[in-house]
Amino acid sequence: MSVHKNINQILPNDLHVTKTKLVLKNFKDFLKKLKKHPSALIGAILLIIYVTISIFAPFIALHDPKKTNLNIKMKPAVWNGGEWTYPFGTDQLGRDIFSRIIYGARVSLLVGFITVMISIIIGTFLGCIAGYYMGRLDAYVSRFADLLLAFPFLIFSIGAMAMLGPGFWNLIFALSFKSWVEFFRLVRGEVLAEKTKEYVEAAKVLGMKDIQIIVSEILPNIVHSILVLGTLRIGYLIIMEASLSYLGLGIPPSIPAWGSMIEGGRDYMFNAHWISTYPGVVLVILVLAINMFGEGLRDILDPRLKLE
Amino acid sequence: MDEENRNKPLVNIKNLKKHFIKKPSFLGKTLLKQKKTVLKAVDGVDLDIHQGETIGLVGESGCGKTTFGRTIVNLYKPTSGNITYKGINIRDIKEENMKTFRQAVQIIFQNPYSSLNPRKTVGDILSVPLKNRGITDKTEREVKIGKLLNRVGLAPRHISSYPHQFSGGQRQRIGIARALAVQPEFIVADEPVSALDVSVQAQIINLLQELQEEYNLTYLFIAHDLSVIHYVSDRVAVMYLGKVVEIAETNELFNNSLHPYTKALLSAIPTVDRKKRQDRIILEGTVPTPVDIPSGCRFKTRCFMKKDKICDVEEPKFIDIGNGHKVACHLYR
Fold it and tell me: Which CATH number is A74's domain given?
């Protein structure tokens, strides 16, 4: 009891309360800054729309995205003179393009998100160890990373997918196999810079273990950079997924994906452009939104860039 | 404390060396014929530090002061030589006992802006040493942090603030509180005030002296500001190119310096006395690189009192010329 009395004398308010308040305050600050950054705000809103649509796809889609009906094939979109039943028209097999785009958003977002998550985990883990301990492991992993970087991403994934065969998880494996390198290099560099700072040395002198130093001292200082790179990479990976699907090497044709939809309309480009156009437009807007948000995130999270 | 213990140094440093070795890469070795370079940052330092005293360590930049301080707190592993703390060689301390040593020996850093983790609150920063001391109860820790903050002249309400919300002097106070939190006996203060402005310097120095009296602390005070050193130190050691060239009690050193380098250093203290200013010794050239230390006396390239051939050939021994005044110079054989 006396301890509690003491603490009331010393501390004006309870630490736990201030901590939760602090998190809330940080989040509010973040929103405030986001509002001052129009392109980031637009990106964020568009992203939220995309995510919501893909989560509630079964409720939003007007038709079964896989159901073919040759009687209604290649119907134009509403503003090309079509009907509201098929707002974006139908494709060469009579499938509703609008519904397929909505289901396709799931694939794109999932591939992008899961691949980035896997890459962040692998890249951060290896980057921390290589950057903190240096030595032989660092040399080996860094050379392997250089080797992977020497391959163009698309060529590499085409080769990998040709070996593995199309499939959702195969695609994620093939993309993750190369995309962790970016995170590895980022984290390694940041750890190298952070570990020479005196607060890390102070932690050592206080007797903290290496793992504690990495996780609780260094990582919080570099998590922002990882977050920004991660966001920007999602957009890039979505394009990779679409490119591979376009080549018939990504998502199997049974699952609606934007890349394979664009490819499906290639032969009808002159009489039914909408089969390819709308998935393409939707893809461009999504990647643009992600990039706008990612770059805004970088400005917001970087304390050196004060937003006016 | 009995008489025998009083004479035993708290820290005894014998022939301590810290060399940084840079090996060329495989390609550099085969194609460019690069050779291994050895940077001798600390090159054979002998020093006894007694309980409760403040030893000032001066020297120009690049002379190895900071490396020396960091080697003592075991941030760097010494290349050779021995550091004994309370009669125990640091090399012999096993991993499980290292914690005790870590708690007894602390360091205060020069740059208060990089020595505090910018993502942690003051409470988080000070919790770490307390946890290491075995205080697991959160409320108890908070009370202790409050007291610590009070002691170093901050308010307990600062517990949930982040480092960037403080000024340089306040940050240095937090750094001091962190070092104090483990109840150390020996603190290496690595230029603790050189990044601060003069009025704040005085506050921090006074705080350090108060704490010394209160907790019977021993300091190794590294600085390049001679007036600060004069004010805080009981004894002063002068370092040149990785080696201590002269050590004496503060007044003795400032009034009766023997080594030519010390003389030059002391004559560089700014003064308003015109006559003294004319007497200023200006050293020629720059410090030789610690990668390629001159043979014989390491100060010979800049020495204005260099006498005979012996300076080129033989490295002077570090000898006691009475009253604990030691100097490494051939002039005082």
Answer: 1.10.3720.10
| A5 found inside a domain | no
Q: Do B157 and A12 touch (CB under 8 A)?
A: yes
Give the one of B99, B105, B115 whose C-beta lies nearest to A198's C-beta: B115
Task: Give every strand in the sheet of B11-22, ordered side by side.
Answer: B37-49, B11-22, B80-85, B88-89
Q: Is residue A65 part of a domain?
A: yes
**Looking at the 3D structure of chain A, how many domains does it have?**
1
Is B291 within 8 Å of chain A by CB? no
Enter the ipTM.
0.85
* Residue position matching structure tokens 């409470």: B123
The residue range of the domain holding A68 is 55-301
Minimal Cβ distance to B102: which of A6, A205, A220? A205
How many residue pairs from chains A and B have C-beta atoms closer than 8 A?
Answer: 83
Alpha-carbon gap, residue B174 to B118, rounded angstroms: 13
Residue A39 inside a domain? The answer is no
∠ CA B173-B163-B182, nearest 5°, is: 50
CB contact under 8 A, A202 and B147: no
Q: Confirm whether A235 is domain-assigned.
A: yes
Confirm or reject CATH 3.10.20.70 for domain B3-119+162-332, answering yes or no: no
B98 touches chain A (CB under 8 A): yes
Cα–Cα distance measured from residue B206 to residue B195, given in angstroms and rounded to the nearest whole number = 16
* The model scores a pTM over 0.80: yes
Contact (CB, 8 A) for B303 and B311: yes
| Nearest residue to A276 (alpha-carbon basis) of A241, A246, A240, A238 | A246
- How confident is the model over B264-277, as pLDDT tens digits? 888 888 777 777 66
